[in-house]
């Protein structure tokens, strides 16, 4: 890397970023831009997947205990229900881990406690009218309310049908319950079953594949299964290659240098 | 009580592409400009952690906060409009640079045919070809008149593209300033297949730089790294042309731009003939200000250009019943949906790599490049294969019949994650008497002002277009050596839920007649000579292309108009 070149950006965070990006720094920084990132055409740009901690000062090594795995919104019962349901949506198999091992239920819990769970950036002003399907979501429920009511409904329906809580059912019976929700055959406490199921499905996929910083995709296990390399700074030198280019995945955590 | 501020030469409402171009050109000419942006400040360093699909693509980090302001929507006048409560069909930009920050960078000049679409359609097919209710409209400017402004924009942004163009597009007086982007294995398959069929593919012109580039204003930017995070993301390299790394710094360097963020313009202040300035609210404090100016430039997105005129009672509101008035008329969108996915068994592709404007395209079935005599639609689409960088939350392709969840879904979605290439058509959208924008009678924004209401649906014209173009995408995909292909050729009722396109157009259309347009060919308002309304809201219809090239060229044209007006005054038409 040509880090010794003159006229490096003076801003410290910018400098670290460029170092991470594996690109050489040229002479000119213009218009508030990270200008002169020449890596593209120089030898220095060849390191498309730089070492995770270029500064040599690595964030603390992961211990066996993941302190992020605790609850922000769910109670334990809701957590277990969500975990069991997510595992059926994205089960463990020969290809690799399922939703449970990937921490998807923690992801969902954390999302429900976030601005997203509270619809902070959605238009939630009245009046509310049902409207046509093609006019989109028109319910008064916030996502976290719909989630809590939906999980309760999963258990209630499981009790009615199979005399047990959802998490204790056989996988086959869990699938039958989820299918009944998906196809809107369930009518409990005014919970829109299909809408709840679609939200749970979408959150499960997000929890499998979002950056591990959000609590799911543990150890980038979701990405590894499909050879997705995560947060890479440049594919300049490999994008023309035939076939699937396999790279060790990087997360945003790898991007944070001290 | 609003605070009255000192007068400026020009006040610009909205600091995206249009506002940036106008601020740069006017300040370079020595005029003082106040730029009002309702969102926050943005710089490249905000994007050092931008490779975050959840935050930017799924939670819409860069988009307008809908809790404060949204649009309402209905398919036709018989039903009640309801608010778009969360994002779906299109994404509204916010903050410095606006939607110009999170675009893909796909760059296409509209066709010569587009600017004179009514005249050319009647010439070739006769008046009866235009169906009843289609308000087809000439733009009051020709391609040749607009050509120099396209060149200007291309030099500023450093557009990367093939040095020669096909016969299907307008002539270029100057080639693109930088070489085309790289060619991926998927692009090669598409290009070879299209050529075999006798079509004319070319490399998609790109606002993501293929090489390092210094523009005529002295702005230097770095080459694209193909990281795959363009659409919905900002570019940490400044490789994607964006107002914050091109025109806005040029304006700032003159010392003549007074840029104010969180400044939400609520009204153009006027006496019925001329504007005296604008009223705005500083959103964090709620303080109100009046900014007097010689010239007011409306440079916000389509919906807010229309809404601000209507709320300010400037211009004549369009009435679909009487066919009178113009503000809100000819709202158009983009007709997507025609596509074919090619599934491979023995081949994999690194489709997670890419750039927003990396791809190959053809225009053999765009505009009037083919005979429409026996077809039940006008115009067409461009057909493309793009490699924009497929991300894992969004992109889980499975063959038809695969369940949406469970073991079979997991297996198929992982198997095909790197084994599908898609050929798609981006269709044009024609204007209709009953597609328009007006003020919603019920729903309000966080300041208590009516939201804009959109009345729109897909027509038979659009369904026929999709059916025809889908067959062409399949024809090409079938030549790409896949194990199987799956075509989509159905278009149903317009649905605001799934994402489709952020190419909304119309509502303040340009033209040569004050009776059927809001602005003239300099984007100067017929009803108020010192108000210029700019952006895709001036389009008479939407072409089979991304709109930014044409928005950009018209911005340079408008900047010239504002300069002329400041020198001489009066109507420029």
UniProtKB/TrEMBL annotation, chain A:
<dbReference type="InterPro" id="IPR006311">
    <property type="entry name" value="TAT_signal"/>
</dbReference>
<feature type="transmembrane region" description="Helical">
    <location>
        <begin position="20"/>
        <end position="40"/>
    </location>
</feature>
<keyword id="KW-1133">Transmembrane helix</keyword>
<dbReference type="Pfam" id="PF13618">
    <property type="entry name" value="Gluconate_2-dh3"/>
</dbReference>
<keyword id="KW-0812">Transmembrane</keyword>
<protein>
    <submittedName>
        <fullName>Gluconate 2-dehydrogenase subunit 3 family protein</fullName>
    </submittedName>
</protein>
<dbReference type="InterPro" id="IPR027056">
    <property type="entry name" value="Gluconate_2DH_su3"/>
</dbReference>
<feature type="region of interest" description="Disordered">
    <location>
        <begin position="43"/>
        <end position="65"/>
    </location>
</feature>
<feature type="compositionally biased region" description="Low complexity">
    <location>
        <begin position="48"/>
        <end position="62"/>
    </location>
</feature>
<keyword id="KW-0472">Membrane</keyword>
UniProtKB/TrEMBL annotation, chain B:
<comment type="similarity">
    <text>Belongs to the GMC oxidoreductase family.</text>
</comment>
<dbReference type="InterPro" id="IPR000172">
    <property type="entry name" value="GMC_OxRdtase_N"/>
</dbReference>
<dbReference type="GO" id="GO:0016614">
    <property type="term" value="F:oxidoreductase activity, acting on CH-OH group of donors"/>
</dbReference>
<keyword id="KW-0560">Oxidoreductase</keyword>
<dbReference type="GO" id="GO:0050660">
    <property type="term" value="F:flavin adenine dinucleotide binding"/>
</dbReference>
<dbReference type="Pfam" id="PF05199">
    <property type="entry name" value="GMC_oxred_C"/>
</dbReference>
<dbReference type="InterPro" id="IPR036188">
    <property type="entry name" value="FAD/NAD-bd_sf"/>
</dbReference>
<feature type="domain" description="Glucose-methanol-choline oxidoreductase N-terminal">
    <location>
        <begin position="152"/>
        <end position="332"/>
    </location>
</feature>
<dbReference type="Pfam" id="PF00732">
    <property type="entry name" value="GMC_oxred_N"/>
</dbReference>
<dbReference type="InterPro" id="IPR007867">
    <property type="entry name" value="GMC_OxRtase_C"/>
</dbReference>
<feature type="domain" description="Glucose-methanol-choline oxidoreductase C-terminal">
    <location>
        <begin position="440"/>
        <end position="554"/>
    </location>
</feature>
<protein>
    <submittedName>
        <fullName>GMC family oxidoreductase</fullName>
    </submittedName>
</protein>
<keyword id="KW-0274">FAD</keyword>
<keyword id="KW-0285">Flavoprotein</keyword>
